Amino acid sequence: MLSSAGNSSKSTHFLGVQLAQSQQVLESIRSVQAALVAHTPGLEACNVPASTAHIALVGLHLSGAPAQQHAERLLYEELQPLLQRKGTALIPFDLQLQGLVCFPETPQVHVQLQTW
Question: Cα(94)–Cα(24) distance, rounded to whole angstroms?
Answer without folding.
Answer: 14
